[in-house]
Backbone:
């Protein structure tokens, strides 16, 4: 299969690309940091896999749509789109970090919407496709400082469910999966600038967290199912994560 992964330059996206390439799929790597994508492509090819680079910013609808159309011309079909790109500059609303809030809405919600609008017409026409959205446990539960981040992930979950219902109603074999990871060791927390949030995390103490491949295996499971089996949601935490 041809599988496009956004946010493939690090963390969950990179691990998913590596795993899916090892399983024999051609992976299309999308993110902004081209040098990271080139390094990953080299690693995948070194393992005998196939990878293409489609550098891009998911917040730019026109550019994403053009890239998607060009890929379709080149490859004929894209079977799975994994909307994984996301940012998480957690902050308390009272601290006024409005630009970070806007960035979360732009990447985490509009980025997902932009890819869906780019991919859906050809998937519906072919009556075959799979859209996998990476939401979060924060898309089921809010905690102090996660108001906007959780808001974006609740939105992703709502969009996933709405899309699933629409495809079922239209009798289209376009599958929709919402992946909800708990804490995973990635670069995601590097964008937090709110000192109070950083201090709050320090006080929370040690909790065992997952590795990116733990999520990649769940994504692979959803893709492997027969064409009519739609894995709607997967929620994954470590045994030590209570919230
Ligand atoms: N880590 C966790 O604990 C956790 C838990 C639940 C859910 N998640 C979700 O998992 C997804 C992946 O995050 P991660 O943990 O793997 O973090 P990460 O290592 O920081 O990866 C985030 C990815 O998103 C990409 N990205 C950010 N802004 C982008 C943009 N405007 N256009 C295109 N790509 C963009 C980044 O690439 P570039 O900077 O190169 O563009 C990077 O590849 C996110 O949606 C996150 O919310 C993570």
Residues:
């Amino acid at each position: 299969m041809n599988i496009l992964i956004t946010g493939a330059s690090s963390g969950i996206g990179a691990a998913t690309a590596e795993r899916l390439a090892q399983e024999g799929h051609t992976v299309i790597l999308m993110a902004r940091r081209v040098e990271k994508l080139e390094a990953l492509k080299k690693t995948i090819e070194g393992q005998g896999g196939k990878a293409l680079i489609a550098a891009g910013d998911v917040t730019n609808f026109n550019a994403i749509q053009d890239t998607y159309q060009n890929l379709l011309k080149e490859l004929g079909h894209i079977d799975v789109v994994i909307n994984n790109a996301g940012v998480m500059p957690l902050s308390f609303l009272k601290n006024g970090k409005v630009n970070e809030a806007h960035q979360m809405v732009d990447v985490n919600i509009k980025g997902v919407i932009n890819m869906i609008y780019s991919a859906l017409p050809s998937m519906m026409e072919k009556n075959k496709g799979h859209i996998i959205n990476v939401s979060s446990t924060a898309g089921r539960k809010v905690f102090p400082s996660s108001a906007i981040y959780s808001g974006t992930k609740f939105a992703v979950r709502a969009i996933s469910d709405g899309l699933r219902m629409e495809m079922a109603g239209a009798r289209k074999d376009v599958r929709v999966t919402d992946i909800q990871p708990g804490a995973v060791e990635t670069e995601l927390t590097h964008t937090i600038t709110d000192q109070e949030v950083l201090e709050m995390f320090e006080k929370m103490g040690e909790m065992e967290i997952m590795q990116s491949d733990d999520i990649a295996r769940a994504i692979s499971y959803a893709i492997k199912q027969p064409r009519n089996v739609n894995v709607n949601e997967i929620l994954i935490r470590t045994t030590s994560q209570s919230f």
